[in-house]
Amino acid sequence: MEKTRALVLGVTSFLLVACNGASNDNVAVTNAVASASSASAPEPLSPDIPPKEPFGGKVTLESLQHDFDVFSWESFIALNWPADAQGNPLSGVTIGEQPDVLRVWQHYKESRDIFLPGGKKPPGWNQPFPPPALCGTDATKPLLRQVGKTPNVLDESAEPFQTGPLIDQNGQYTRYEILTNQVMFDYILDNDLYSKAGQTEFDAKAEFPFGTDTDVGSIMLKAAWKVMGEGDDPSQFYTTEAYVYNNPHEHAGVSEACQLQRVGLVGFHIGTKVEGNPQWIWSTFEHVNNAPTQGQAADKEHYNYYNHNCADGGVDCTAVNEPPPRPWNPANTNTPPSQIERVIPIADDTAALNRQYQQKLQAAVPGTVWANYELISTQWPTAADDVTDETGIPAPTFLANATLETYIQGRVRQTSSSCIQCHNNAAMTNGKKSDFTYLLERAQ
């Protein structure tokens, strides 16, 4: 099977290079790979995170993207399964039940609980990290500190890519968190990579554990949340109560503040290190009402980040996919909303697969909020072992989540969002490669 896949991947790489040489149109490439009408149907809903891609039977060029997309959906469902206090998936229930219980991934370690001031050793996996005193004492509630995909986004003015906060239709800043599973956390802890001193002594490139045929490997997650407000229907989102915190130590000029608020999930990004894919597999999901797609009808009654009547809503109609003007301050709850559109449409086969999974979720629990999420795409290396290209020639060429890579959507090389190409540049504080994650740069 691996030899067959390697041969097909080689053919795929050739086609991708040929297509990219002729055009920057990522959609055409994706659709060429993704026209998998005869590919396998979705698996039953399961709390088991897939350790590998679901390749089975005859591996064809047309089925590869489809199978990676199935892997993404299966991962999304398992990670969002209701969990017990230890983070294990609950038995006897399914993903759409127990709405007030934290999901499996919400028991992972948040990056700010790993990379502590002064390079201090973080608490163990099962030791909760207390929230700031201003927030309260409940360490089980999520703490949302980040107001951009990158840390300290409010203070950064010389980013290699265009960045900035994302403002919803109620003038509220979108909040973010980045987490790792225990496999990834243990590797950081065991090798003292949580501190600059530890990374200096390590003096090698990071190599996070792969998944195997039976065991899940390293997983890192990024989640985007919006505060529930006027015009939002909480019953259409996965929501949770979280401490929404403004950290003066990370954002110059921002006063410390914390409020317990109901927030809804709007973006979900999964990086999974699976055997045969050293560049990781990148899966990205969004709420279906985030934003319309350029060139298509804006047929939703309400969008989270788009105003049909922008001129009447205090929105700059010309500032589509543009960061809000400075100064940026999350304490300002009346910031003019962002006007966001999706630049690259979801591929036809991915859209069809989304409908299949949404129908399955609805059949399992009618009215479930999880049917309101969709896979944007899955990026994977078509030539993972290519000795001349560390990125492994990813497919699709570009991939952007409208809530996480809002301002770098597009089809321009070295400028537009590509998970693998961007993360290939990541390094540790010792200058060594950090295995496709920027997290290790946070070490102090």
Walkthrough of the structure:
The protein has 444 residues and is an alpha+beta fold. The protein has one domain. The chain is 19% helix and 15% strand. It contains seven helices and nine strands; from the N terminus they run αααβββααββββαββα. Strands 1, 2, 3, 4, 5, 6, 7, 8 and 9 form a nine-stranded mixed beta sheet that branches. A hairpin with a 2-residue loop joins strand 6 (257-274) and strand 7 (277-287). The longest helix is centred in the first third of the chain and has 21 residues, at 2-22. Keywords: Signal. Residues 1-24 form the signal peptide. This is Cytochrome c family protein.
Secondary-structure map with pairings?
Elements (H helix, E strand, L loop, with lengths): L1 H21 L3 H9 L29 H16 L29 E2 L32 E2 L30 E6 L1 H9 L5 H7 L16 E9 L11 E8 L10 E18 L2 E11 L60 H17 L8 E9 L12 E2 L23 H5 L21
Parallel strand pairs: 2-5
Antiparallel strand pairs: 1-3, 3-4, 4-6, 5-6, 6-7, 7-8, 8-9
Helix pairs in contact: 1-2, 3-6
